[in-house]
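Hi F.,

I've been meaning to write this up properly since the lab meeting, where we talked about keeping a consistent format for the predictions we share between groups. The idea is simple: the sequence comes first, exactly as it goes in, then the structure tokens exactly as they come out, then a line or two of notes. No screenshots and no reformatting. I'm using this chain as the first example so we have something concrete to point to.
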Amino acid sequence: MHMETGTTRRNFLVGTGVALGTAVGAVALGGCSSKDASSGDQDLASTGVDFDEEYDVVVVGSGLAGLATAVTVGTEGDGATCLLLEKSDSPLGGGNSAFSGGMIMTTDNYDDCLEYVKALRGENETVSDAICEAYVREAMEHANWLRSLGAPDDFYVSYEDPDGFCQGVYKYDAEYTELDPNASVHGIRFNPDNPDGLTHVIKFLSAKADELADVITRKTKAPAVRLIQDPVSCAIEGVTYLDGNKEVNVRANKGVVMCCGGFENNPEMMANYFKAYGCHPAAAVHNTGDGIVMCEKVGASMWHMHGIAGFWPHVVSLDGTGFTSNLEMIDSGYGILVGTNGRRFTPECPAVSYGNNTRVALDLKLTNGNRHGDYQSGGEWMTRHLPAVSWGIFDAAGFEKATTYFPFDDPVAEGFAYSADTIEGLAAQIDVPVEELTRTVATWNAMLQNGGDTQFYRADDGVAPIVEPPFYAARQCPWFLNTDGGPERNEFGQILDHDKNPIPNLYSAGEFGSIWSDMYNGGGNCGECLAFGRISARNCLGIA
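Output, unedited:
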């Protein structure tokens, strides 16, 4: 059971001021030297802070990474207590996990998958071999771990290969089939038709955390605001969080695990690291980089701050305030994409991924595509740069096809598209040069009549001339999945300082300083949440 102790406002302010002020100053001067405490048994010195609550492990963020961490503490901690803090009002967190497809990257062959993962990190090798090895070892255990928690085989849905290495596994091909070996990369996810309602891995782990209420305390609308650090040893003693307007100081006897996601909804950070104005994240409403700032203040080194899964063109309302992630009009293959100058700037390639659907042939027309926002046109995969405002241009037939999944009965009436009987009239509505847009559409139609897109060599999937009125324009904005940046971690899940030494008793998991620095494989985010949730929990407890 956790303990609660009394404190005064004055004592709290005095204690916190000394701890944080001294610690930050020491780090800046290089005077704070942390010890390697991979077992989580680092002795804590006194910060002078009076603690209101006490737990063995404090987890910040209750998305998939936080739940995996807490459940590992609850099931393997031999009675260790865990506080799971979440700043949103949802027990499933305010980040990406609950909105993801729930695909979990896994493998049945350690050596081959390890080689594949090493290839994903790119030539710069910003992720160590040891981290890759730790990830793959845990990836092999995802299915067994979930089963050990009570998930039956039919929690996993099979689409193509019911005879995979794990019964009921959704066995899918690796995204980067040009990287060899890749046949060992698979994916698992929960059955969307499960009668118990546990249709997603995060729902399953949330239910499991509730079952462990004797050792796991869950608090929503409880944002962490600072880490409490000993000024001499640099060890993390605990966390301060908000309970309404009241600051609560909680001691973490064994350590703190940060599972705060990225900074997708921090416009300043997005502008600083990506020069991305007007972009829109798919989810992650509460991912505002708070945890990154907290870790910076205790001397954490940052990595992969320029890493991102994106961008795609996605539909935004005409006034720029509404957004739907249910529609990839251009990536569906219909219409063309133009900038505010009325000109095309991209081959508008359909999204391609997974195995044989990935175009890797030498023919330029066959190598156009994107996967998780990485784009290629006959060459290297790179992040596609999109303007803050662009326009999808369609004729009547294309718009009807493109809006199949539009969550509106009438996109025009509901403020997501313009329509006009002529291209000239459409250009006037969207405020692009009339001559440029008419020339662009005419050029597009002529190219298709003569065999295909000779401007950008767009693949032939879904291409059609723009000839049938009325004509439509849907406003597009850059859309992305998640940022990758945050505190650097090692293979034990420990957060590192600027000298690459672990900050004692501070760990991380999930997209909070993700290991995916170069190329991202589908299922890798959920896979990382589970893998490093378990790794960090076990090392924090000293049972790894």
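Notes:
The chain has two domains: 3-99+198-307+484-541, 309-481.
Residues 1-31, 33-45, 157-171, 352-362 have pLDDT under 50 and may be disordered.

If this format works for you, I'll send the rest the same way.

G.
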